[in-house]
Amino acid sequence: MTFHRKETVLIPESDLDGMSVDTLAVRAGQLRTGQLEHSDAIFPTSSFVYNSAAQAAARFGGEEPGNIYSRFTNPTVQAFEGRIAAMEGGERAVATSSGMAAILSTCMALLKSGDHVICSRGVFGTTNVLFQKYMAKFGVTTTFVSLTDLQEWGSAVRPDTRMLFIETPSNPLCEVADMEALAQLAHDNDALFVVDNCFCTPVLQRPLEHGADIVVHSATKYLDGQGRCVGGVVVGPAKLMDEVYGFLRSAGPTMSPFNAWVFHKGLETLPIRMRAHCDNALELATWLEQQPAVEQVYYAGLESHPQHELAKKQQKGFGGVLAFCVKGGREEAWKFIDATRMISITANLGDVKTTITHPATTTHGRLSPEDKSGAGITENLLRLSVGIEAVEDLKTDLYRGFQALQNASNT
Ligand SMILES: Cc1ncc(COP(=O)(O)O)c(C=O)c1O
Q1: Averaged pLDDT for residues 220-248
Q2: I need a surface site. Which of 168, 208, 233, 293 has the fewest CB within 10 A?
């Protein structure tokens, strides 16, 4: 027997107008079926059925709105898209299979052969490879510049420049870009300004309010927050997102309904998680700065950080990722990592569990020595994605690293 129920609907959002990101994280993009479930339903189905051949034709022809096929229409994915769009303050979001797929889809939809991109050097290593190796194959060239040197950005602009791409704060050195200045430069030159908002999330920073045209995310990070799924999302004005959606429909880097459901539920706790990440990271950054074996700490919450004031202006918190250099080189960095017992040695970030990474041999390992040095990825650099464990316990575990360095220097 088949039950014919009322179609699922996204609950109208007009009652949420003007509400805070904390509320939108829990209430925006809600999906409720005729079963009246309180927690959002999940729709793991590849296709949808129609009442008649005429209805199928109307759906495919775009005359009737509704679900067709989960490569490009799925209610769970749309619920997640609705929620993150509301949180970022964008008109529309398009979910993708990974953060890299979000960046690729943005480029494929909005750039063409002959276009030029300016990208900051301090981006996630794979983003660098995507522009440098793969977009180049299709005639899109990229100039890499310092995230914080506005003069360098200005000098890199060419008549064919169509996109400025940044991460702020950057991965892993936590440099902070002046988004309003870069938005101005982009718009004066008829280019799009794209911001990877992975480190801050809309809880701490809403780039569209600072002039960005598009925000991209690796949902794999804080949006999930518990290291379960890989996914991404692009947010921006409907006109641009329609193009990204068109690419997704044709090329298929689609988010699965299960992953969308995990991210959708993950967003509900994002505001409180981000506050806990920020508190722990600031405390650890301050503590690390006092350790004799530490050469330098990179965290925008520290007064010693060159863009501390800018970060205070643009962000509601300094985020959960910090980086630091131990005295020495790769040997000391690895010794430090290997001495920790609780903190996870893994390349992911944005997890409630604290993770430690050696960027030079993992996340940025595919960069050439010149690109690594341009991005400040030295052999003694460690990245810590600070979780929400008790901060004193994190210090205890990190202290094991310092003891290992001390023991080695005594022998
Ligand atoms: C800032 C940033 N952007 C994008 C990505 C790529 O995301 P994904 O691994 O979901 O493809 C990462 C991954 O670490 C990242 O750190």
Answers
A1: 98
A2: 293
For residue 314, what pLDDT band results from cuts at 50, 70 and 90?
Answer: very high
Print burial letters for 270-284: b (CB count within 10 Å at least 16), e (below 16). bbebbbbbbbbbbbb
The reported pTM is 0.95
CA angle 173/197/373 to nearest 5° reads: 25
CA distance 161 to 156: 9
Digit-coded pLDDT (tens) for 135-160: 999 999 999 999 999 999 999 999 99
Q: What is the rounded distance in angstroms from the CA atom of residue 273 to the CA atom of residue 266?
A: 10
Residue type, 373: S
pLDDT at 366: 82
Determine the 3-state secondary structure of 239 from DSSP: helix
Chain centroid offset of residue 209 CA: 17
Q: Kindly report the CA angle at 323 between 319 and 329, in degrees rounded to 5?
A: 175
Task: Give the whole-angstrom CA distance, residue 231 versus residue 218.
Answer: 6
What 3-state DSSP class applies to 297? strand
Atom of ligand 1 nearest to the CA of 363: 14
For the segment 96-118, what is each residue's pLDDT rounded down to a tens digit? 999 999 999 999 999 999 999 99
Q: Under a CB-based contact definition with an 8 Å cutoff, are residues 202 and 216 in contact?
A: no
